[in-house]
Amino acid sequence: MTSLLEIEGLRTVFRTHGGEVAAVDGVSLAVARGRTLGIVGESGCGKSMLSLSVMRLVPQPGTVAAGRVLLEGKDLLKLSDAEMRQVRGRRIAMIFQEPMTSLNPVFTIGSQIVEAMRAHDKSATHADLRKRAIAALDRVRIPAAERRLDEYPHQMSGGMRQRVMIAMALACSPDVLIADEPTTALDVTVQAQILDLLRDLQGQTGMAIILITHDLGVVAEMADEVAVMYAGRVVEKAATSAIFDDPQHPYTLGLLGSIPRVEETRERLLAIEGAVPPPFQLPKGCRFHPRCVFATGACQVDMPPLRMVAEGHEAACINAPVEAMVAA
Amino acid sequence: MSGALLEVENLAKHYEVKRGLLFGRHVGSVRAVDGVSFSLGHGETLALVGESGCGKSTTARLVLRLIEPTAGTVRFEGTDITQMRGEPLRKLRRRMQIVFQDPFASLNPRMTVGDILEEPLLVHGIGDKASRRARVNQLLGLVGLAAYHVQRYPHEFSGGQRQRIGIARALAVEPALVVCDEPVSALDVSIQAQVVNLLKDLQARLGLSYLFIAHDLAVVKHMADRVAVMYLGRIVEVAGKDALFANPRHPYTRTLLSAIPRPDPHRDTARQIPGGDVPSPMNPPPGCHFHTRCPFADERCKAEVPALRVLEGGHQVACHHAEALPAAPAAEGAAAMSPVAARRLELYASRRGRAVAEAG
Fold it and tell me: Which end of chain B is more exposed for a tag (fewer CB within 10 A), N or C?
């Protein structure tokens, strides 16, 4: 068994007055130890709900309706609440986009890190945990860690706060780190520092990272494999180089055409027309077809499943690769 | 440069910092903008680029006279507007408009789109009821929305559509200058591309001048004619877009450029990112503000503030060592994309062109 964490047919639904809405609809993914899986998509594609489902933190009225989340073969969805608490933080940790709202403003960062460690280590002395908290801050390269421990979140910059979040997440040496847009709120030079830090820490600990982002640049630098999500489903999944060199799904193509590039001489961007459909008004057939320039009548009938288009490369499009279809 | 639409000279904005409840005692000042000069021509786009806290948004608000400068002049169409008040100032506001970053916060949720777009016309007493209606419809068409959207409220629209409404509102009074304050930073990539294209189309059609505030150099590459890079309240480099990206002369500009994550998995990610954060603007380092993070800094940089000076080809840079710096790392091969990906994007582009032509 090579995968550390495997997600199989995961379906997360919200029961609303208007009926059942699936935020995540049949997603299967896997990540191995020491590897990074990038999950790319725009707002509303279900990427954040997917990570909350893995952590069993889906907010009400949402529930995980189907599927399995296997951590070393053990289904997390079948664990009791008490058992799941032992998994969160210790086996799987999570960092969020906004380091200001994820930290409690009325406690020092030291007490927050110690609290997180205490949850998994009831017997250690306070002095001991404090020492470990200093070591944790050192590890994420926060200068003068001992002094910083007694500061409040508002006394730190955005980049420092995100380092604190990472220190806290890594305090119990998790096997899997889920990073949900970890650098989106940061300036570009600080973003580069944080990405370098995550890479280094992964090299030291061998943890698996699930990196959720909308930024294809971040994915290209960080991920080994990429899953592109659209409207709750994975539409393409492959090794990172294959996603960029051999993009198969028209949505992936559209995303690649939309990103402004520094090295680009072409002035006009290839935008994708229209917007992501709201989850309660999903179109029939392929969910991307109303925005797809290659769509045919057949695309409006059945939802295309992921199929193998090359070795280790899957895409959910009946027309891929598009040049074959244009030639025909 | 008498032909310029906007000329800014030594513009400064200092905020006093006070401590104490009743009789605040003065403990220092934040030099949010500290002696900034630039000009903007007719139909031109100048991008102000920098990280948070560099003073780019404050500069934009000073130019619009939404806040009062501590020092310096802003000349718009040849007249100094920093002392303007009353009726002339009201008239001036028709000529300069702004598009905000957050399309969720900048539209009144209790007004319909029609009312939002009509309001600037009412404020400036333009036209009668019928002609204003017609203008609103025309504006909706201009930004790619439909006439039936008039009756709707902002919450019924997606982020990209809301930003279109914000752009239409700015254009309602036919301004010459539009300040775009991070207009696409809050949008998804596919939507961001739509709005960038729209802004460029509108500029070509209406001859607008843009002061484009951004932190994302890749977006700037697509939008701007010239780029000014700011750091802690000062401009450190100004150049034409191509010169700036091909041959950045200030170490900070190089840092910004190398920090952008590139959508190219084959690129070597080893790079030099200076440690540390931007220093606090309340207590900026003496001399060159960037010397604390600069790999080339020496004693002179710690003591002497470098002036913005002109190098060859109108390239301006504020660095003592601009000539002595090693050549900028060679610009990486143009859009390193595989032939397969490039071919498919071509197909995508031609299909899309056809679809747009049919719709139009």
Answer: C
Q: Is residue B153 part of a domain?
A: yes
Inter-residue contact B157 to B109 (CB < 8 Å): no
- For residue B132, count other CB atoms closer than 10 A to its CB: 18
The per-residue DSSP string of A19-59 comes to EEEEEEEEEEEEEETT-EEEEE--TTSSHHHHHHHHTT-PP
What CATH number is associated with residue B143?
A: 3.40.50.300
Q: Is A278 exposed, middle or buried (0-12, 13-18, 19+ CB in 10 A)?
A: exposed
Q: Give the gyration radius of chain B's Cα atoms.
A: 22
| A250 vs B contacts (CB less than 8 Å) | 348
The nearest CA of chain A is from the CA of B86 a distance in Å of 40
Chain A residues whose beta carbon lies within 8 Å of the beta carbon of residue B192: 258, 260
Furthest CA-CA distance within chain A: 72
Domain total of chain B: 1
Pick left, alpha or beta for residue A64 (phi over 0 → left; psi -120 to 50 → alpha; otherwise beta): beta
Which CATH code of 3.40.1360.10, 2.60.40.10, 3.40.50.300, 3.40.630.30 fits the domain covering A3-91+174-327?
3.40.50.300
Side-chain-side CA neighbours of residue B184 (13 Å) = 26
B245 and A262 within 8 Å at the Cβ level: the answer is yes
Tokens of B267: 């690129």
Q: What is the DSSP string of B140-191?
A: HHHTT--GGGGG--GGGS-HHHHHHHHHHHHHTT--SEEEEESTTTTS-HHH
> What pLDDT, in 10s, does the model give residues B72-120?
999 999 999 999 989 999 999 999 999 998 888 899 999 999 999 999 9
Q: Model confidence over A207-251: pLDDT tens digits? A: 999 999 989 999 999 999 999 999 999 999 999 999 999 999 999
Q: Taking the domains of chain A in order of start, what are their residue ranges?
A: 3-91+174-327
CA angle, A227 then A85 then A16, to 5°? 60
Please answer yes or no on whether B259 and A192 come within 8 Å at the CB atom.
yes
DSSP B257: H
User: What's the CA gap between B238 and B41, in Å, rounded?
Assistant: 14
